[in-house]
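so ive been stuck on this for like two days lol. basically i have the seq below and the ligand is flavin-adenine dinucleotide, smiles is in there too. i just want the complex predicted, nothing fancy, no docking runs or whatever. if the output looks off dont worry ill sanity check it later, just need somthing to start from for the group meeting slides
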Amino acid sequence: MFRSFLIFLSQQKSLRRWMEHSTFAKPLTRRFIAGNTLEEAIAVCEKVNREGILTTLDYLGESVTAIEEANQSRDHCLRAITMLHDRHVQSTISVKLTQLGLDIDADLCFENARELVALAKQTNTRVEFDMESSEYVDRTLSIVKRLHEEYGCVRAVLQAYLFRTEGDVAELNAMGVPVRLCKGAYKEPEEVAFAEKADVDANYLKLAKLLLDGGNYPAIATHDDRMVSGATYAPKDRFEFQMLFGVRRDLQRKLLEQGYRVRLYVPYGEAWYPYFMRRLAERPANVLFLVWNFFKN
Ligand SMILES: Cc1cc2nc3c(=O)[nH]c(=O)nc-3n(C[C@H](O)[C@H](O)[C@H](O)COP(=O)(O)OP(=O)(O)OC[C@H]3O[C@@H](n4cnc5c(N)ncnc54)[C@H](O)[C@@H]3O)c2cc1C
């Protein structure tokens, strides 16, 4: 109930505008957001790299409605790829296609995405395409598959809560597209997604096995001990674990000590509200934790 309320709040545009400009927000968001600027975020990636953890850098922003905004996001991401390369940071970038204009024009979005992937190829890195709500899955996968065929250096994201995902895993495995498997972070109708956590978890374990046995270097993106244990039978060099900045540092360290590859998803930027609210919705206890810290500090 409270979770649904937090997801509802995450979609309120006026609240978003107010929160992103308020002065009291920064101390609240610090746990999950690596900073406002590219420089701050890269400094975090460098620190994390020194601990032996890889990163994927996410310039926050989604659902843009103006062409200039989509092009600005593209230019910012190009700058990020260049800077990561120049500073020898072990990092990919992650991006949402609605940030590159998917809601405005699919061709514009494709061209923006293509520029990022072309530069990623030149600089020997990869673009990871985050997955948004179910209405975007077909359009997102279609762009990722085209770019995979043209350049190769992409990663698709699939969500275990969707009924359709087993079919998508089979198709992407057959094409050799690397996949990040996550549980899924959006509020979805019951016609398309499992509503019960037990069903999502069971599907996650089943899909993870399909990816680990037949996929191309999958990423197991979860903080759930059971999901993690379900993947550890696979050879360590055939996949990586991925986790979010600010979540389960204990588990990140443990996996690293055991010799697994771990990549941290590092979000930054001023458009933090929807991302931050989804993190609260995943674990409503975070709300109490943040309020407690706010008053303590
Ligand atoms: C690297 C990465 C990339 C992702 N990309 C996408 C994407 O493109 N599209 C998408 O829909 N979703 C994405 N997600 C989010 C994902 O779908 C889940 O919503 C999120 O990871 C929580 O699921 P879980 O597997 O950790 O399991 P859960 O069952 O939600 O959590 C298991 C345990 O992990 C810990 N935990 C989980 N979340 C939090 C949190 N926010 N704060 C503190 N502790 C927490 C708690 O201890 C909890 O008991 C991504 C997640 C990761 C790790």
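The first helix runs from residue 2 to 10. DSSP finds 13 helices and eight strands in the chain.
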